[in-house]
Write a structure and sequence with these properties.
By secondary structure, this protein is an all-alpha fold. The protein has one domain. Helix 3 runs antiparallel to helix 6 and helix 7 runs antiparallel to helix 8. The radius of gyration is 17 Å and the shape is globular.
Length: about 220
């Protein structure tokens, strides 16, 4: 959806806010937010870990799951393989998906072999890896929403934290639902995604995260 189409139906400030929300809750950032929630906010999962140990795990995840994928997209743009950082076409998304699969798996591998790392963090990284792999396969057929996959993973993680009895429904859950709602709305306003692209992304992200955390 281009600016002209949006401007015919919605105020320009609405489109600007939608773009800002799309940036803040980009799937790569959402992955870091999920890890930060587990490390610093959840009441049970990382009890007994020092602040230094928590920050070291977060730095590992930021390095592998955020910094390196962004570098790959930047290099593709700089070398002229992609027309923009927004990855508007399915073809432009192929290499970033492959890079994300590689880096997400590396995070999973590192945490899996760190003695004492709670299974929930290992499972979260495994879920991100599975989500990226599924998105790459589905990208051959339609432009699945990466934002949808990200917030689907967030919903899956929150669901597991309720069902395993480690947390009651409360503020974090409400915040997760709120983030999901505003993100999917923003993407519908600021992108050319159909509702099918968006909903399919949420479903795939949630299923992959649930599979990874339960199996």
């Amino acid at each position: 959806m281009n600016d002209q189409i949006v401007s015919n139906h919605l105020p320009k400030w609405t489109y600007s806010i939608a773009k800002l929300i799309s940036i803040i809750f980009h799937p790569l950032f959402v992955g870091v937010m999920m890890a930060a929630y587990l490390l610093f906010i959840h009441p049970n999962y990382f009890v007994g870990f020092s602040e230094r140990a928590k920050w070291m795990k977060l730095i590992i995840l930021v390095n592998n799951n955020l910094f390196f994928p962004i570098v790959v997209v930047g290099l593709l743009r700089g070398l002229g393989f992609n027309k923009s950082f927004l990855l508007k076409t399915q073809k432009e998304r192929i290499v970033p998906y492959i890079a994300s699969i590689t880096f997400f798996f590396w995070s999973y591998y590192v945490f899996k072999h760190q003695v004492g790392t709670p299974e929930v963090l290992i499972g979260m990284c495994r879920g991100m890896f599975l989500s990226a792999a599924a998105s790459l396969l589905l990208n051959n057929y339609f432009k699945i929403s990466m934002h949808g996959v990200g917030i689907g993973g967030l919903i899956g993680l929150m669901a597991v934290s309720i069902w395993d009895g480690s947390q009651y429904i409360g503020t974090p859950i409400l915040i997760g639902v709120f983030i999901s709602g505003i993100t999917i709305t923003a993407r519908k306003i600021a992108s050319d995604h159909s509702w099918f692209d968006l909903i399919a992304g949420i479903v795939i992200g949630m299923i992959c995260q649930l599979i990874a955390l339960w199996i």
